[in-house]
Amino acid sequence: MLQIDKIYLSVDSRRKIFKEEPECITDVVVELRSGERFLASFFCYAKIWEMKKEFEKSGKFLAGTYFWAKDMVLVDNIERGTIKKIVEHLIEEGDFLDVFRRISM
After folding, report:
1. Mapping DSSP to helix (H, G, I), strand (E, B) and coil, where does residue 80 land?
2. Is a pLDDT exceeding 90 seen at residue 105?
3. What are the boundaries of each domain within the chain?
4. Average pLDDT for 24-50
5. Do 79 and 48 contact (CB within 8 A), yes or no?
6. Which residues, other chains included, contact 24 with Cβ-Cβ below 8 Å and sequence gap of 6+?
7. Residue 55, C-beta contacts closer than 8 angstroms, at least 6 positions apart
8. 35-67: buried (b, 16+ CB within 10 Å) or exposed (e) per residue?
9. According to the model, what pLDDT value does residue 24 have?
10. Chain centroid offset of residue 46 CA
11. Cβ-proximal residues to 49 (8 Å cutoff; 6+ apart), any chain
């Protein structure tokens, strides 16, 4: 079974720099004990709705008719505890390698 060593959230860096609550999107890098690293992007449901409205105005994604992002996971929130639970659940269910893509760093 895959074993988590560390979980990195891009939102943590933005919180330190801007001292405010960032957008509800974060890239998540999971480093396993084996040293392998995997990446996925987490979006809050509410942020997707907000983006759809922006795309309707801007014309992007056929004026909000669709949206996609590589390795996208939709979540209630991007709190570290929530994301850790999701990652652990994906590993337990055997879906982790379907959701996250391997990266080299």
Report:
1. helix
2. no
3. 4-103
4. 95
5. no
6. 43, 44, 46, 47, 77, 78
7. 61, 63, 64, 67
8. eebbbbebbbeebeeebeeebeeeeeeeebeee
9. 87
10. 14
11. none
- pLDDT tens per residue, range 12-30: 776 555 555 557 899 999 9
Residue 20, phi then psi, degrees to nearest 5: -145, 170
Strand positions, DSSP E, the chain: 4-9, 25-32, 37-44, 72-75, 101-103
Instruction: Estimate to the nearest angstrom the gap between the alpha carbon of 100 and the chain centroid.
Output: 9
Could you please report the per-residue DSSP string of 90-102?
Answer: HHHHT-HHHHSEE
Are 25 and 54 spatial neighbours (Cβ–Cβ below 8 Å)? no
Structure-token pair, residue 82: 């929530």
Q: What are 57-99's pLDDT values in tens digits? A: 999 999 999 999 999 999 999 999 999 999 999 999 999 999 9
